[in-house]
Every structure is written in structure tokens, then in C-alpha cells.
## 1
Amino acid sequence: MDAETATRILNAVDARFDAQVAFLAELTRFPSTRGNEQGAQEFMAAEMASRGYSVDRWQIDVDEIRALPGFSPVLGPYEDAVNVVGTRVGTSGKGRSLILNGHIDVVPEGPHEMWDSPPYAPRVDDGWMYGRGAGDMKAGLASNLFALDALAACGLAPAADVFVQSVVEEECTGNGALACLARGYKAEAALIPEPFAESLVTAQVGVLWFQVHLKGLPTHVAYAGTGANAIEAAIPLIAALHGLEDRWNGEEHRHPEFAHHHHPLNLNIGKIIGGDWSSSVPAWCVFDVRMGLFPGQDMAAAKAEIEAVLMEAARENAFLRNSLPEVVYHGFEAEGYALAEDDSATAKAAIGALEVAHNAVTGAALDRLAITATTDARFFGLYADTPALVYGPRAEAIHGFNERVELESMRRVTQATALFIAGWCGLELL
Ligand SMILES: [Zn+2]
């Protein structure tokens, strides 16, 4: 691509940027938490159709993906889990194909009174857009579409097939991205604009979710000594899990990409419920855990170790000893993934193309980042032999109150994405 074409593409992003910000606000208005993504997906499908892409919308069928590597178990039905993919077929067939992926689901916003303004009434202040999902990752979804729009505005199109994916389930299982693979969507590289401050993600941890179910012995609190408190029994079990977390984070266990990160694997007690009545010793307690894993760490071995730690702690408890906890797996069984370990020529070429694009927009070298969260990149990298580049805008307070995304950062990422598409796929006349 010559310098003049690159400049035309960058200017085309600028020319549409106000429309892109309006698009992001409209998309952020949808409270697309798990199970409530339909409106946002309808909007995405309509936007893709209006651009002339062929649109594929389908409900995820658990039976079609259950046996595939990377599947995460789910509780409850998938009647409301709908993926959307827009396809633009290249006519010249001379370039390299590309998946532009993003997730539409957002995490619950928490108590609204803790937000400075309502989470689904996006507002712009001092160059940032605030709203649940604005950063994670609706700005990325906007970037994918508007990068292609910029090419079209120049009378250009990718010289290969491009698939724009808007998937569900990223925040709890990844089964949306897995369902795209199962449906046959493949390309030579994937780009996922998750909000990691314009850095290229070289490694991501794995994530395992599980619930621990505890029983107790209910009595009137007047005779508490004769009962067994299921809620208080959880406390030493949680401490034992943190002990395992400390061990796994030990320097000798660390994956090389995380060698300089002092605590890459985080254990979180995300939820706890139990008991029925203030004056009754609680007969039950359930707590939900999220634990990180390193790339390459074996999932089955990790589960076995977690269960062993829990059972050992439970045997210290006079009641639990004879009524051991039950561990229920639901949600993430996500393996870690390290793009840095992909030494294929394709991966090198894709990273090289992104470096060139990033440098053309920012004038700076592309920073590398190992992240302590997971993304859908693992499906492409681990199960489809496709290098997955995670590269997106700067956002703050994702999963927190007053989540926000920096609009100038979204502009730069959109420009870099447009140049990346041009460099990776090549260009043909529209
Ligand atoms: Zn995300």
C-alpha cells in the first residue's frame, strides 16, 4: 500500500468518527448482559446488513459444541444465546482472510447508585465515553465495522474474505466464539479489539469457574453448639484455596510470559449465598470461585488439585468430614493462550502487519502485554491454528463502576485496524 492510500484511509476514519461515536453510544445503550443480548445483536445484524454483508444469525446449540475442545459447561438453557456474523467475500481471492471478532455481552453493572450516571445512558465527558460495555468491548465492535467502512469510503475492500463476528458468552464461557468455529468460520488470522490500551496481548491466563456447595446442620441458634454452620465452614475452605493460589503464583511455577508479573493468577470469591433465617444455624452455603491458570497448565490436573485442597480443608471440620463439599463446574474452563509461543510464519506475518499499522498511526512501537484475564483469542489460537491478535483501545474500570473508554484511543485503533486489514488482506477495488 502506498503512502497516499494510507493517508486516504486514515482520513476516511476521521471523516466518519462522529458517526462512529454515535454508533458506540447507541450500542452501549443496550443492557446486553448474559441472556439479554438480543436487542444489541439485532442492532449489529442490521448494521452489517446495511453495509451489504451477508448476515448469519443463529442460536447456539449446546449439543453441537459440547464435545469440542474449549467447551465450557453451562447451567441453564441457551434459548436466548444468539451469535451474529457478517461476511464480506473478497472477489479477487489474492489476499489473506481475516476474522474481526468482538463480544456483545457485558458484565452486570452492580448497584446503580454507585455510578456517577446511569450505566446504560452513555455520556461523553472530556474525551471519554462512560457506560457499561463502552470499553469492554463495544468500542472494539465499533472499530471493526468502521475500519471496514473507511476502506469502503475510499472505494476499496479487503482482497480476501472478512468475517465480522459479534458473539455472546465471552464473559462466562467463550461458547459464542466456539460456536462460530463449529459453524465453520475460519480465516488465516483473527483480530479482537479487547480494551488493552493499544498493546498487543502476547499471552493470556486461563480461567476456571466452579461452585463449592456446603451442607450444615440446622438448629435453633439457642442450641448452636449442636448444629453445624455451613456459612462459617466456608471460611477455612476459602483460606485453603488462597493457599493454593499462593503456590501456583510461586516464581518456580510461572509461565515465562508472566515471569515479571508478581501475581498473575488471581483467585476470586465472586459470589456467596447460604442460610435461610437469622436465628437458624445455616444448613447450606454455596460460593462461586474464579481461578486463573497459566498457558499450558493442564485443566484436569488443576481441577484435581483444587478438589484435593478443598477436601483436605473440609476434613478439618467435624461436620464436613462426614458430609464433604460438592464441587460443581459451570462457566469458564478456559485454557491459557500465548500468541508469543506461536512461531508460525503466519503469526509472525500477522504481528508484523499490525506493528506496521500501529506505527503508521501512532509513530510508536507496538507494546507487548501479558494479561491476567482471558479472551476469546484462545479459540482461534488453540483450536483453529489461527493466530489471534488482541489489540484494542484504552479503557478504564471495565467490570467496575464508571467504566469508560478513551475516544481518541478508539480512533487510533480504528485507523490501525483499517491499515492492518489493508496490509494483511490486501486491497481490491470495491
Ligand atoms: Zn472483553
## 2
Amino acid sequence: MSEQIPRQPMPEQPAQERRHNFKEVPLGYTPEAAQTEAGRCIQCKNPACVTGCPVGIDIPGFIKPIKEGDMPASVAKLAERTALPAVCGRVCPQESQCEARCVLGKKGEPVAIGRLERYAADWARENNHSIIPPKKPATGKKVAVVGSGPAGLTVAGDLILKGHEVTVFEALHQAGGVLVYGIPEFRLPKAIVQRECDNLAALGVRFELNSVIGRLQTIDELLEEYDAAFIAVGAGTPTMLNIPGENLVGVFSANEYLTRSNLMKAYRFPEYDTPMYQGKHVAVFGAGNVAMDAARSALRLGAEDVKIIYRRSREEIPARAEEVHHAEEEGVELCLLSAPLEFIGDEQARLTGVKLQKMELGEPDASGRRRPVPLKGSEYTIELNLAVVAVGTASNPLITATTPGLETNKWGYIQAEEATGKTRKPCVWAGGDIVTGAATVILAMGAGRTAADSIDQFLSWGW
Ligand SMILES: Cc1cc2nc3c(=O)[nH]c(=O)nc-3n(C[C@H](O)[C@H](O)[C@H](O)COP(=O)(O)OP(=O)(O)OC[C@H]3O[C@@H](n4cnc5c(N)ncnc54)[C@H](O)[C@@H]3O)c2cc1C
Ligand code: SF4
């Protein structure tokens, strides 16, 4: 019966309208659509979907009350395992996690778990319905959390409820990590992230913004005052292409481009002070979520044409299928099997074009993806006045360089035990992208939860 009900589509802003504004693209389910979609879940006794969720949300448990119209019960079930449902419902790659394992997906389409999670979280926000889980009596122990992305926020939320004092140190002037400086407003409205941070502050978490740890204070100095430290500084150092012309005016890293637009609100210039470099003909290099976000932002900032330049084929594109679909609908052009050789500029060192080379796919490389091989004599040039490089990020060495005893791997990521988040340095834990390399919001949250449990045990029983 449930299998016969089609998966409920998500209403969206029309592509031609939304490519000119920064308002959210998917509009959310109506109560009727949410109840119908929730009715598709057959409430499996051994739900496979839960095994695909890195934080183990009781998925049938939060979906059933939606079907029954009991929204407070649904929100309460979600709150047992996640502090950021409105965020995860929007940006998690459900298609490769919980939804990939849903039994309905074997014969048809899986239950739209992410859309239902978003519906429940939005219902709570719109109805001012907040769940304040019980807080344990104060222990007198103090924890310093460095970085306020999803890993840091999860640790802070878990430890404050366990009765410990928690201070989050954040280098930027706003908390949220990539959720505020990277992911654009049209995918994740900033007010939603701010609300999650406000909830933590209301529980007693202290936020020290504009605090670059490693400069202002070292981890060892923090440990003179705090009983434990959790490092969650992400992987925010941009990787560039290292080709000639990369220092021309008009070539940006995706980090700078997106941070200007999102965190510094350049898309609202001159209402906000930060200007945005204007590009009529734009190319974004790379094809991950970051590249899609940069390309779609460029369209909204007034570009006439935006190309994604990617050296592999459509099959290897690492971005979420939904993001690629949205980008193409909005008019972003995919230039596949093309690699940049050189940026070209005018006498004032302003970007005017890029020389590209066609590629073909050879044998699989270490990542298992087929290696792109240059096609001799296939060079061509396109006109360009803005280039955004989105080919990955690396670890920021500031903390590791100023913290003796912290071990890193060959890429500079901190080594921490997977089961606990413990580093080799006593009283110091780490998690999120600074341990795994660039990953996902939910994996960062999962690492935060694991570390919070371990820190709590240490504060109660010792190292
Ligand atoms: C543009 C973009 C789009 C993405 N889209 C998705 C998506 O759709 N779905 C998904 O699941 N994932 C997505 N990701 C990945 C995801 O956002 C990250 O994996 C996740 O945010 C990592 O969380 P984190 O807590 O480890 O670090 P971050 O979110 O990077 O937060 C780290 C924080 O630490 C702060 N910090 C750094 N150094 C210091 C210091 N020395 N002192 C104090 N503070 C410091 C930083 O300012 C930052 O606020 C995207 C990433 C980007 C960049
Ligand atoms: S696997 Fe699918 S049908 Fe079964 S409980 Fe999970 S969401 Fe519902």
C-alpha cells in the first residue's frame, strides 16, 4: 500500500526566478504532503535506514508522529539524537546515507527522510516549540571547544547538558563554521544556524568570538584554565590549481568568494561594506558541493554565464545529485573532461580568459575513479573575467604548529582515535574535518558526539 503512494515532491522556487535571488530554493513540505510522505514509511522492525545515519536517529520513531499529526512527539524524538535537525534536513547527503538503505528504495523510491526531518525542525522553529533536554547538576569542570562548526557545536551542546562549563572559541565574528561562511543562504538560511547557536547560549554555552586560538592563546595556555580541550577547527585552507596566471586579478579561491558573499554579506553591497568582484563570464574549477555553491552564487550576483570546469565525466562528479540538478536548472553549464592549463590576463593583470585542455578517462587511480588523461592537441581558450577555484581544502597548520605533542598525519590532519576522539596529547580531543579532511556536516556532528561522551567519562573518572 505504502509503496503505491508516490514520493512527495518538494515545492521549489522556479529556476528562472531563483537564479536572481538568495532566498531558499526548496520551500518545504505542506502539512498534507508531510503526512502523506510519512504514511509511506512502513515502520520496519529492524529499520535499515537507521544504520545509514551517522548519529543513529530513530527514523521511524520521528516519522510516525508526523503521520499522526503529533509534531511535538516527532521533534522530541529527533532531539534525542541531533541538535541540528533543521541543518541536516537541508544539507545532509541523505541519498547516500539513510535514504540509500530505506527498504522502499529496493523496488521504488525511498521515504524522503531528509525532507521530513526538515519539516519537523521547521515546525518547531515556526511554532516556537523548543525542547530543552534535562541538564545535569553542575560538575565544576570546564571544557574549551575550539571552532564553532557542527563538530564544535555538537560537543558544546552535549557537554553543557552533562553539567560541565563550556566555552567555544571561534576565530570569526559569527559562530557556525562552514554553515555560515561556506554554505550559501539559498541552501541554508543563516537565521536557522543562528537559532541553533542561540539555543546553546540559552543553555549556558559561552561563545568567545574573534578569538584565533594559536595566536591569542595556545591550547596549552587554555589547559591551564580548562580541564579539557576539543579541537574542531575544520579544514578551511584553500587548495589552488598551481597553474600560471593564478595570481591575476579576478582569480579567487572558493573560500574567499563564498566567505565574502555569505559571512560578509557582499551580496547585499552597498547595504553591507564588503564589495564583490563582478564577473560577467565566470568559470568555477571543480565539481563538488563547494563548486556548485560558488557557481550558483555567481549567477545570483549577476553573471551572464557560469561554467563548471571539471576534468572528469558526469559520473565522477562528487557534488550531491540534487545540487548538480539545481545548478543546471538555473543555467550553470557543465564543461566536463576539461582541465585548466593557464589563466590569461591583460596588461593590467586582470583575468581575460583561461586555456583549457580536453581530457579522456584512463585507468582508475588510488581513489577508484578513472584517471583523466590529457588529449594531445586539444587545447582551447575561453573568455573569462572571474574564476573561482574549488578543488579542495587542506588543514590549517596554526593549532598543530603551536601545540607540542599533537600528532598529525602526512596531510597535516590531527590524529585522533575514531572511537573516542582522543588525541595523543593528554586532555585534548579533536574531531570533524580537522581529523578526517573535508567531509560532511553529519560526520562532524557524529565525531562531536563521540568526543563529548569520552570527555565526559574523563571528567568523571580520569584519562
Ligand atoms: C561551501 C561548502 C559547502 C558544503 N556543503 C555541504 C553539504 O551540502 N552537506 C554536507 O554535509 N557538508 C557540506 N560541506 C562540508 C561541511 O560543511 C563540513 O564537513 C563541516 O562543516 C565540517 O565541520 P567542522 O565542525 O569540522 O568544521 P567547520 O565547519 O569548518 O568549522 C570550523 C570552525 O573553526 C574555526 N577556526 C578555525 N581555526 C580556528 C582557530 N585557530 N581558532 C578558533 N577557531 C578556529 C573556523 O572559523 C570555523 O568556524 C560543505 C563545505 C563547504 C565549504
Ligand atoms: S527503512 Fe524506510 S520504510 Fe523502513 S523504517 Fe526506515 S524509512 Fe521507514
